[in-house]
Amino acid sequence: MTASVVVTGLGIAAPNGLGAADYWAATRKGHSGIGPVTRFDPSAYPARLAGEVPGFVAADHLPGRLLPQTDHMTRLALVSADWALQDAGIRPDGLPEYAAGVVTASSAGGFEFGQNELRALWSKGSQYVSAYQSFAWFYAVNTGQISIRHGLRGPSGVLVSDQAGGLDAIAHARRQIRRGSQVIVSGGVDASICPWGWVAQLTSGRLSTDDDPATAYRPFDAGASGHVAGEGGALLVLEDEQAARARDAHIYGRITGYGTTFDPRPGSGREPGLRRAIEIALRDAALTPGDIDVVFADAAAVPELDHIEARALTEVFGPRDVPVTAPKSMTGRLNSGAGPLDVATALLAIRDGVIPPTVNVSPHADYDLDLVIGQERATELRSALVVARGFGGFNSALVVSDAAPKARTS
Hints:
By secondary structure, the protein is of the alpha/beta class. The protein has helices at about 20-30, 70-90, 110-125, 135, 140-150, 165-180, 195-200, 240-245, 275-285, 305-315, 340-350; strands at about 5-15, 15-20, 35, 50, 100-105, 155-160, 185-190, 230, 230-240, 255-260, 295, 325, 355, 370, 375-380, 385-390, 395-400.
């Protein structure tokens, strides 16, 4: 259970870039993908901004037979999986039959597909409901469709969770590789920017109602008033390091540590679980706080939650002792897609030696964080911590490290 697990492929669909190269270029420059909702008319709703994936035409990437049976979310996931496998240089038909699997996370399933079919049911009758409704709405549909498309018949699964779930899926994929699987496609892609999904997200009370993209989502800012929802995420190809090196694969980095906790019951007087999740992840990675070169923050943009996260980070790392960034300020919060996108971003940051910025934020001094704002920061990066919290008290932390660990010089 101690095999080193590496990432060899990335597939990204994000509100500020379709494909890993476009996303990374935009993120390094601080280009935001947040804007007015276009997937439906939001004028009657209190929140009207979102991060929508630009320029995505499913028919340009997928065979026509898949379009009637898939939700927008699944189409994004299928294309991201295609890109991740291509990036990894893996042909699934060249692998042993049960050597590869799929583990994804999902917060909502195919909400838009389900909404359309329910509308048909109520307005026209059951004979107008697509047979594909039986699975297109389901939380596990991304895992299933990716598995079918690529013949990935090994251990697979889905974690039904929101923001923290994407990290949990990657951690489970690491377990499967340590148990003997050769390749696992893992991560999360979510998309529920439709009236049904929008109302569901509004019930959290955490969506920003600001109509200005430059001020709507400002984590760790005195003016923070909630987050902007988004769609998309990332899928990663995970492999056993020995196998990846044997085939001379390009390795982005290693999944070195993971920790997860659940917050105590409100009113119990016990402290939130985020700090403990971070400490568990560091122990799992056999690293000290001083070994972490950057933190990719959860960045809730809810003052109470921002204070909890900032306190956890300063208690673990010390005040302003580690750079902190929140590139999701350019995309919005992508539910189960957010953690995997941050993991992919961290790996690209380690590769290129730059920390991408947090945009539109004037950090409040009370948080005592070294928040990277304005523009990217060039620095040597060897290990990064990614933090994610889900609605209801879920906390997850994942450590990624460079492909070839070296002794530190200081």
